[in-house]
Amino acid sequence: MSKDAILGAIRRGLKRGPLPADQAAMLNGRIASHPRHLIPARSRIPRAEQIALFIKNVEKEFGTVQRIPDLAGVPEAVTDYLAAQNLPARIVMAPHPELESIDWTARPLLARETRRAQEGDLVSLQHAWAGVAETGTLFFPSDPVRPATLNLLPETEIVLLRASAIVGAYEEAWDRLRAERKDPMTGGWMPRNLMLVTGPSRSADIEQTLELGAHGPRRLHILLVEDEAAPREMSRAEARAQATAQPGTPAAPGD
Amino acid sequence: MVHLTSPAFKENAARALADPGLQKALARTKPQFHGKRAKAVAGLPEFEQLRNIGRDIKNHTLANLDHYLEVYAANVEKAGGVVHWCSTADEARAVVLEICRQAGAKTVTKGKSMISEELGINDHLEAHGITPVETDLGEYILQLRKEPPSHIIGPAFHLNREDWEQSFRESHTDLDPKRVFTERRDILTEARTKLRSRFLAADVGITGANFLIAETGSSVIVTNEGNGDLTQTLPKVHIALASIEKVVPTLEDATSLLRLLARSATGQDFSVYTTFSTGIRRQGDLDGPEQYHVVLIDNGRSNMIGTDFQEMLRCIRCAACMNHCPVYGATGGHAYGWVYPGPMGSVLTPTLVGVDKAGHLPNASTFCGRCESVCPVKIPLPKLMRHWREREFERHLTPGTIRTNLRLWAWFAKRPAAYRAVTRMGIGALGLLGRGKGAFKWLPFAEGWTRGRDLPAPEPGGTFMARYAKARRQGR
Ligand code: SF4
Prior knowledge:
The structure holds two protein chains of two kinds.
Chain A: H1 2-14, H2 21-33, H3 47-60, E1 64-68, H4 74-84, E2 90-93, H5 97-100, E3 111-114, E4 123-127, E5 130-132, E6 137-141, E7 156-162, E8 166-167, H6 170-180, E9 193-197, E10 202-203, E11 211-212, E12 219-225, H7 236-245
Parallel strand pairs in A: 1-12, 2-3, 2-4, 4-7, 5-8, 7-12
Antiparallel strand pairs in A: 5-6, 6-9, 10-11
Chain B: H1 9-17, H2 20-42, H3 47-63, H4 65-78, E1 82-86, H5 89-102, E2 107-110, H6 114-119, H7 121-127, E3 131-134, H8 137-145, H9 161-171, H10 184-201, E4 204-207, E5 211-213, E6 218-223, H11 227-233, E7 237-243, E8 247-248, H12 251-265, E9 273-277, E10 291-297, H13 320-323, H14 326-331, H15 342-353, H16 355-358, H17 370-374, H18 381-394, H19 399-414, H20 416-425, H21 463-475
Parallel strand pairs in B: 1-10, 2-3, 2-4, 4-7, 5-8, 7-10
Antiparallel strand pairs in B: 5-6, 6-9
Helix pairs in contact in B: 1-21, 3-12, 9-10, 15-18, 19-21
Bound molecules: iron/sulfur cluster.
Iron/sulfur cluster is lined by residues 264, 315-321, 344, 375-377, 379, 381 of chain B.
């Protein structure tokens, strides 16, 4: 069997047999504790600055951000954005409870369908699970209320993100995923599909010149709900102390 | 499709230096590659520390590769996926074909994947009546033009706008022949429209994998266009092709490497889409594949473990080494004659296809050391090229061979069209890879080329051009 052949060849190269049980247990322990390596200092900053950094990075990657005070502001923000972009007042929306809880009646002219995306859909309204300030990256774990096609097929993607869901570094999002999610099939936490999205789709394949809107959305517009009433201001020193106190900086990959 | 023409590096290089279109593309590209990476690296003060961390993560994984592969495979299976362990390219091709057949596939969309080039998947599927469609913009135009990629992340950077327009007019014959392409966007829009229908119709989607995560059983792809995501999300069946060294233990490990990858590759802080795929569509999901297969490929990697070349298995395919290589910068990627060009190709190609076929590639170096200084996982590329040169020397290639090939070279140098025809006609070397060394029946200049240690550094307009011109004069 090729599995045995491959593992055998690797072990011959490493000049050993299968790992002894204690060493295998050590490696499994490393997976279970998933130690963090160095986390760049750029996101280890006070809370308000983290949110500003997130916005700055999204804009650097050609996304746009609109801050809105609460969920009630979503219908107006969506219709205004569509009008400004000369797009028809029609969206396909993720069946996410937060989006469905919104009172849309004030905007009766906005046509909405709640489903996955199909060919021909021009605009999607999606729900982001987290944002990472370090690079302005959105996290979209797939599940029945967050179909992945909404991130891919329409030319314009509008995303709802709560400010409280913005973290500094990817590692914080991993820990939140580990703590908060449960996958029905594996019993673990990783969903079937997890998209990390940083700006709209693009290609530089034609003469190394950047063009937006290759196969995915050409526009990525984030509605940032300011749900952190009074974000606790951490002092810089405090933030750094927290950063260095995080487990296992840097992990010793040799262990 | 990719034929092995590595044995003819010198002729390939001569041709490249005399190709005005290619030289224009290279001149346009070089400053971009350098400037963007430099800027991204400057923006992350911890970059140097991260390089050490990246190296250490990969070394730790390789030292325990058997264990992490087993953990990874078990987690894939938990998520309803199937892992196909394949020692050789032959096996991998057969597995892919069988999955496609089982799915009753007529068309297959593909995300960009260098391992798929290595395996020659497209030719194999086509030979069995299944149509593969490359969906990365660069790969798409190369498929239309029947050309191999010339770069591992910008496969079509060697083409100019005119080439795109011409190929689109020739291939998209259902569209108005009088349409005008006034800007690059028009080319992009036409490709987007054409490929969209392909995405929707495909029965199977094939992607590569930048990383495999043991902790979760995930395959990770990194793209900017979104084509890889459409490929793996829309069809009923997703096949991820991955070589065994792609595995890393945890998400934290992958994260550190991801911080290095995009900055080194395109000078972005992070690519647009970094997507983790883990198994099949869950109950209640509205999209995603019903089958998830990982084809886990060795194809020569395990032989590198425990040798001088083990370090090469750290490679994360960022292309920084070729972007900063003066030889690559003068000749482009096709001259290297196989899937992997530039310094990483010069080390990897002899390992994977045999030193007799590609043993002189390591000579295509000025040993300036720039590749090593930019490599995000600190692979000592010049040292590894030197190892190959020593091994090649030990093989004692005969002067007779060299003379014969020099005569051949002169003949072909006078007749570039004939050379091109010959290399196109050549047996797909990839198709033979799995059948053991020395099985190549016929290849252009299949004998080792030279024992000369000192390939003249192709300073722009230098030696190759001169030789090329001289050969032409003598021929007339
Ligand atoms: S050898 Fe290093 S620089 Fe070259 S592609 Fe691999 S990781 Fe990148």
